[in-house]
Design a protein that fits this description.
Distance between the termini: 60 Å
CATH architecture of the largest domain: Orthogonal Bundle
Number of domains: 4
Number of helices: 17
CATH class of the largest domain: Mainly Alpha
Number of strands: 11
Largest sheet: 3 strands, antiparallel
Shape: globular
Structural class: alpha+beta
């Protein structure tokens, strides 16, 4: 079987990860992008779709309408490093059974009768190649799309959730317009999680799906988005997103003043990689960076609170939450009732995060799941709480408690306040 040829990393970069130096883009027809699957797609299935659609745009089929793509190319497109090819095959097989409703957001002048079909009705493979056909309904628009979004497969590989891929593609389609069109929240829900969604109320869709996808896009992609809710009275009807292209990374050669150089060095002392530090210079004002650095250093020097194990993570939290802002807030005196309420709120928040952690874990491929399980088992000193093939109820709870904190960190006061607000709204 052919193997992937890894690109040589830039000088000075440790070759821990394979890095694509150029975009891996293709024109994705909006008829496909704005589609509704009959069931929720996994992250791997969305990646497979994009890999095969890109190949269909870049190459020609044979005389019988079959496209051919090397398995090595698919693995590169998916950033698939696992040796578990059965998982890849099973995902492709399940994708063949998913029916899509096409072009949900078509304008009146483009609207036709309702259309639905599977996307890849025929697939076959050997040790080196995969061959497939494309639905006759979508064949012409896939090959030569007149309206499309330029999708980069390297971007999708930075996401951990399939729903993040779907929302990113929807928003990136409107990147040059600076804002998406307003669409019904149920339409967007169906595009992201499929027609058999269990999210019947907007508040649950927002809390369990939307906010996590927005976070991943703003953290890992080349755009920043912001949610705008359009309401009828107090009820959310439509959703819109502002879309802004992020500034490019700031090369060392463009850091021209001593203050910027010092900031990069100070962030490096806290454990922030230089490349990330340069990006933070373009994203945050210098006073905020200085404040967050000082705040983190004070916490590191505070021996009464114990040793700070991860200064870099603490610095990022301080920066994103504005903890270093020069505003002194005196804590209010608390009574027993307030303490009891805070304890119960934290318990409910942790339960909610454990549920989210389980969903997040189930979306990962088996290799990534194994890595997380191994990391958890290595730090778990209690033998009965280590996870095995068949996890006990106690080990399962302990694992997802650990995963929630490992993924999103300890809850901040802002997190708890937002969670309490959401609980209050549910009662109204």
């Amino acid at each position: 079987m052919s193997t992937l040829q890894k690109q040589k990393p830039p000088r000075g970069q440790i070759a821990l990860f394979q890095v694509s130096e150029v975009p891996n883009q293709y024109r994705k027809a909006v008829q496909v992008l704005h589609s509704k699957p009959t069931k929720q797609l996994t992250l791997l299935q969305r990646k497979i779709m994009n890999s095969w659609l890109k190949n269909a745009v870049d190459t020609k089929p044979n005389e019988n309408g079959w496209w051919t793509i090397p398995i090595a190319t698919v693995l590169k497109d998916l950033d698939f490093n696992s040796h578990n090819r059965d998982h890849l095959k099973q995902s492709a097989l399940e994708l063949m059974s998913v029916v899509f409703e096409w072009d949900l957001l078509a304008s009146e002048d483009r609207r036709v009768n309702w259309k639905a079909s599977v996307l890849f009705p025929e697939v076959e493979s050997d040790d080196r190649f995969i061959r497939y056909q494309i639905s006759s309904q979508m064949l012409s628009v896939v090959k030569e799309p007149s309206i499309y979004a330029l999708i980069d497969l390297n971007i999708q590989n930075k996401f951990k959730r399939a729903t993040s891929v779907a929302l990113y593609e929807f928003c990136f389609r409107y990147e040059k317009l600076k804002a998406t069109k307003a669409v019904g929240w149920t339409v967007l829900r169906d595009m992201m999680v499929g027609g058999s969604s269990s999210y019947k109320e907007y508040k649950y869709f927002k809390a369990k799906v939307l906010k996590h996808a927005i976070f991943e896009i703003n953290t890992h992609s080349n755009i920043s988005i912001e949610l705008i809710e359009h309401k009828l009275g107090r009820v959310v009807q439509d959703l819109e997103f502002t879309v802004e292209r992020k500034k490019l990374d700031l090369p060392v050669s463009e850091i021209q003043n001593e203050d910027q150089l010092n900031l990069v060095g100070q962030m490096g002392e806290l454990g922030v990689p230089q490349s990330e530090a340069k990006k933070l210079l373009t994203k945050f004002d210098q006073p905020l960076l200085v404040g967050a650095i000082d705040y983190t250093r004070k916490r590191m020097a505070d021996t009464t609170s114990g040793e700070l194990e991860n200064p870099g993570a603490y610095f990022r939290a301080a920066l994103n939450n504005g903890w270093g802002a020069p505003v002194e807030v005196k804590p209010a005196k608390s009574d027993q009732r307030k303490n009891d309420f805070n304890i119960k709120l934290l318990e409910r928040y942790n339960l909610s995060q454990q549920s989210e952690a389980e969903k997040y874990f189930n979306e990962l491929n088996k290799e990534d799941q194994s890595i997380l399980m191994d990391r958890y088992n290595q730090q778990q000193e209690v033998a009965s709480l280590k996870v095995k093939t068949k996890a006990t109820k106690a080990s399962k709870v302990a694992f997802f408690q650990w995963l929630a904190i490992d993924t999103w960190g300890q809850p901040t006061q802002e997190d708890l306040l937002n969670f309490a607000t959401a609980l209050l709204r549910e009662r109204l």
